[in-house]
Amino acid sequence: RVAGGDQWAQLLIRHPNDSGMAMDQLTRLYDPPMFVNTVTVTRGDALIFSAQVDFTLSQNPAFRFILPAGGNGDLRARVTDTEDRQFESTFPIRDALND
């Protein structure tokens, strides 16, 4: 736990996050970059954190953040990549986390 009852939380994203810098050895061409470029985490209607990224972070990136104590609603993560694909996941917050 963090001071004041806040807690650390971690969001794991499964995504290849290609940088576009690796050459295909057969074609000698570079694939275009494809990576996660927006991440938003909310709890109910409250914004917990958001990130806009214009470069590849890593394959299967992880975000660690502080989850404030209390509050209402499930934790929801929304992710978009450079190909405009959108991914969303919801995690129910139990009362034990609010104590």
Q: Gist?
A:
4% of the residues lie in helices and 40% in strands.
What does this structure look like?
The chain has 99 residues and is mainly beta. Helices cover 4% and strands 40% of the residues. The protein contains 1 helix and 6 strands. It has one helix at 95-98, and strands spanning 7-12, 36-43, 46-52, 62-67, 75-81, 86-91. The strands form 2 sheets. The protein has a 4-stranded antiparallel sheet, with no helix packed on it. The chain is elongated, with a radius of gyration of 17 Å. The termini are close together.
Which spans of ≥5 residues are poorly predicted at pLDDT below 50?
none
H-E string: EEEEEEH
- Percent of residues in helices: under 10%
Q: Which structural category fits the helices and strands?
A: mainly beta
Number of strands: 6
Shape: elongated
Biggest sheet: strand arrangement? 3-2-5-6
In terms of topology, how is this protein built?
Elements: E1 7-12, E2 36-43, E3 46-52, E4 62-67, E5 75-81, E6 86-91, H1 95-98
Antiparallel strand pairs: 1-4, 2-3, 2-5, 5-6
Q: What key attributes describe this structure?
A:
1 helix; mainly beta; two-stranded antiparallel sheet; 99 residues; single chain; four-stranded antiparallel β-sheet; elongated
